[in-house]
Structures
1.
Amino acid sequence: MTPVTSSPLAGSPSALVSWVERIGRGTRQRIADFGSTARFLGETARSFGEVRTWAPLFMDQARRLGVDSLPIGLFIAAFTGIVLALLASYSFTGAVPLYFIGTLVGKTVILELAPVLTGLALAGRVGANIAAEIGTMRVTEQIDALETLAYDPLAYLVVPRVLAGTLMFPVIVAAAMVMGIFCGWAASGLLLNVSSAEFLKGLRLFFQVFDVRYGLVKSASFGLAVTLIGARRGLNAQGGAVGVGSACTSAVVYSAVMILVLDAFWAVTWLLGREATAP
Amino acid sequence: MKNRTSDLIVGAVVLAVIVTLLASLAWVQQSDFGQRRNEVVARVRDVGNARVGNAVVIRGVIAGRLQAIELAPAGWVHVRMKLDRSMEMPPNAVVLLNESSLFGEWQAMILERSALPADVTVRQQIAEATGERNVLAGASLPGIGKLTAVAGQIAGDVASVAARVQVAFDDQAARELRSSIRNVADLSTVLSTTVRAHASDLDTVAVQLRAAVTSLNKTAANAQRMAEQLDASATSGEVRKVVDNIAVASVDLRRATLQVRELVEKFTATQGRLDSFLANGDSVLKKVNSGQGSLGLLVNDPSLYRRSDSLMVQLNALVADIKANPGRYVRLRIF
């Protein structure tokens, strides 16, 4: 055996190896995360087949995630509509006819603000709720108990929430659209002295049914993303209350980011190159 | 029990939202559920930026909406409009698609044919679109964008012409021409002064001549009287002869006097005409100096001069071009 020398350069090869190992480990973990996420999505999709398991739970989740979230969605939309009308009036003064307030409120609420703001609010409420609930079940081994009882935890816990979120988000957003435009109209009439006829003229000027369809489809994708991310983070929770809290935080953050990414995705894929006034 | 409550609540909320959304959509789109509207079709060659949902206006009142815009055979476009049933169509109606504001809104205006704007293009479009049964003739006015483009083109042409005029007629040339015209004006003033001075001399000469002639007449009269006295008193033949000679001389003198008188009269007439000419000339020069009339404008208005000079330049160019390329202007064919 040759003794190891104490040269300053002696540690360099091992440090380099350690650095390369860290890169490899990080890459492997990313790929593992990607793979486990893909497997989670695949297993969730497969669990949709177990209708008897998730169907009885769907309505309860639809009420908790959807109907109970309606007030926050309407509240946000109401103030958004009012502020939009005031901002439009402030921006248009002296240059653009005030009936364009209706156009701006309608287009902005329907296309962007109602889906995205409601989505972000529900990402906090619904995403955190799902992550906390499932995470607690994970750390208290209730999910293990479900598996022991031959229940599919995905069909029992994830599918009804994902379905409820995907279907109820558009309902909430549709109500938010109506509320936002109504409050913008009321603010225009009460605060800005814009007559109803003028507001409606602007609202109808560039209105298209496509805008509503776009907003609703977008909100459905937000619901899907928020519930899937919440469920995934909850199922991966570890280490007791701290782990559950961490899962909630990451669920909210990832959901918010995903909403903005999906917003850009739909804009690029569906709006780009489409004429604004086309029938 | 819990599931049934959830079912009820979720169902009620979903139904309420769907009904509200559909009702809002129908209201915003002004949907015609009860068929309370009449459909009117117009045909045009080009709809411009008109879109489905734009307003249909009769005498300034919104009477309906554009329902559909469809391509039709033979290069036509059919514009379907839904009008309120209570709206009465004007007699001999035509449809004019035009911009209703500067913000890109278009409208379909239904009006009487006689109320069409006095635009040749529009009337041609309407005349061309007339003829299909149950379809109104239509035309479209150019949008602001198109008008702006045309205005920009015209502005470019004007700028080009101005640049060419600038090249052909610079400030130096304008100054020289103005100086030349001023010189001509000064010359005419001097000429007027000279003529006036000579006219005064002529007046003096004429007066003196008239006085001389008057004296001559008196002298002649005295001589004749003396001759008659001599004739009456003289008895000798020589005296008689002298007197006869004097008489002859007197006759000659009278004839000469008459000729001088005629000359004086002619001279007086000539002087009158000369005075008139000078007065007219003076009046003309005053007008020229005050800028009245063509010559006055030419002297005082540089733009007229510039135009005339530009015309001369263009004429010169034309003549040069004709000389250089006679075949372009004159074509001689023998057979």
2.
Amino acid sequence: MTELLRNIGSMAINGVWRLGLAARFFALLLRYSGQAFLRFHLTIREIYYGGFLSLLIIAVSGLFVGMVLGLQGYETLQRFGSGDALGVLVALSLVRELGPVVAGLLFASRAGSAITAEIGLMKATEQLKAMDMMAVNPIARVVAPRFWAGVLSMPLLAAIFSAMGVLGGWLIGVVMIGVDEGAFWSQMQSAVDFRYDIMNGVIKSVVFGVAVSLIAVFEGYDCSPTAEGVSRAITRTVVGSALAILALDFVLTSFMFRGQS
Amino acid sequence: MSRTTLDLWVGVFVVIGIAALFFLALRVGNFAGVDLSETYTVKARFDNIGGLKVRAPVKSAGVVVGRVDSIVFDTHTYRAEVEFTIATRYEFPRDTIASILTSGLLGEQYIGLDAGVDFDMLGDGDLVQMTQSAVVLEKLIGQFMFDRAGAAND
């Protein structure tokens, strides 16, 4: 019994301790970001590996999510005789929620895990220490470019996801089922507001980008330098990012769309 | 991979991302809709606003000319005070009637403006004198039932 209580207590203390460490790490990361921006090609390289190579999975998933929304949404809407509103349903659910959230989850599992693995392995093979010995700051050289690449890629990926989703919904709704094309687009355009819906979606995706990238680089930098430690760090990245995205999404949604429409 | 090819692919990625944003802004959203950058604010008091919400459209002859800014309850007159902005290029006479209408049978509610005949135009901060409240369906049904019951008793 005492053992159990002691374990719970140590887990709680450990969690808070890690949170503090992550905050301190974030501050350090921001401090050395200027140094990283001086050599911007490092960030470009990471945008290629994290962002550009995620393009295919994001685009294909977006298309399929939009197509499923088209099928399911039409099925429900036509019961109320409002199949014409399919465009509104597809566009609003993608732009406000599914675009940022699903793109964030995919980005965390595709790019976030890779970042953690890379940094963790660098730590395990003492490359980070070697850099330190050569007076190269590993946070400026390795961590900051990966972090900023993630922050910059996420909004673009979310926008691509939403756009592909709308195209998927159009493909199913208009081309296959035969919803009127004019009604599909015009109802969508009158219901989706640029500042209110699209910009809030972009803000969400930027926040998710910061969260996912920070978790990924922190877990990699903080892992125990063994094979087992690296694999555990990758698991923690994916689980932690997914939970962070969903929790942040709830908080942001309740701020942005509180009972106004 | 050489640095120039890398730059090229990252450039392609950024272009696709920005193109997607533009697609969302222009094709999906109504960015090119009513221009509300230059507006003036007008107030109106209603006995009952029904289900009117902030950001609801203000229409005249079916065309969106503005949006509802704020809805507050005025404790002096016990009426709802609605503030809405209208694009500067649309001007309305001072004796314009503002009424709360519903789009379709169950649709969202909006403010409809019926232009009057006055030569003076509404300016910033003016109060629309003539208003018409929202139709409350329950009251209407209640009245109808009451009338029917009265007719049956005669």
